[in-house]
Amino acid sequence: MVSIYHPTYSIATIKLNYTPERYVLLENPDSYVLEAISNGHSDIFDSYDKTKLDELNLANIAQFGFTDFYYKYNNSYYSIGIAIGDKIPPAGLALLLLAGIVAFITAIVLISSYRTIKYVKNRVKLRKQFSTCSLIDRGCIPTLTGKGY
């Protein structure tokens, strides 16, 4: 089965107001990283191939041996990372809505069928009682009390 769902990504940045102990100089950032530095986050993209930040992170991890590093760009320090977004695709949303409607209608049919069957059984029971009574013997007529009568 082929999935039609693809996760989305965005770059998020936090500008630091201090100089961290460890940082890496950010040279030639791509357009998504520049946008994230300007706005705090980038536009959404659908593949890691759109940015080189993941490759830069992996290279820095291999070179320095730690993962908690920061970047320096234009004399400012940033924490930069890739955020993964989980969106429900529009087709999936429509299917969920359709399934909800079908479940709601099924519940209504089942509840109304149960109540109708219960009502009919009670009516049949009362008719059987009336049919076995003699017209002269008035003591056998049941009183009509209870729910729904």
Plain-language structure description:
It is a single chain. This protein folds into two domains: 8-85, no CATH class; 90-140. With 149 residues, it is of the alpha+beta class. 43% of the residues lie in helices and 17% in strands.
Which descriptors would you attach to this protein?
rod-shaped; 4-stranded mixed sheet; alpha+beta; 149 residues; 4 strands
Q: Output the structural class.
A: alpha+beta
Q: How large is the radius of gyration?
A: 35 Å
Count of DSSP H/I helices: 3
Euclidean distance between termini CA atoms:
55 Å
Q: What are the secondary-structure elements, in order, as H or E?
A: EEHHEEH
Low-pLDDT residue spans = none
Q: Into how many domains do the coordinates divide?
A: 2
Strand ordering within the main sheet:
1-4-3-2
Per-chain topology:
Elements: E1 8-16, E2 23-25, H1 31-39, H2 53-64, E3 70-73, E4 76-85, H3 90-132
Parallel strand pairs: 2-3
Antiparallel strand pairs: 1-4, 3-4
Question: What is the structure about, briefly put?
Answer:
By secondary structure, the protein is of the alpha+beta class. The protein has helices at residues 31-39, 53-64, 90-132; strands at 8-16, 23-25, 70-73, 76-85. It has two domains: 8-85, no CATH class; 90-140.
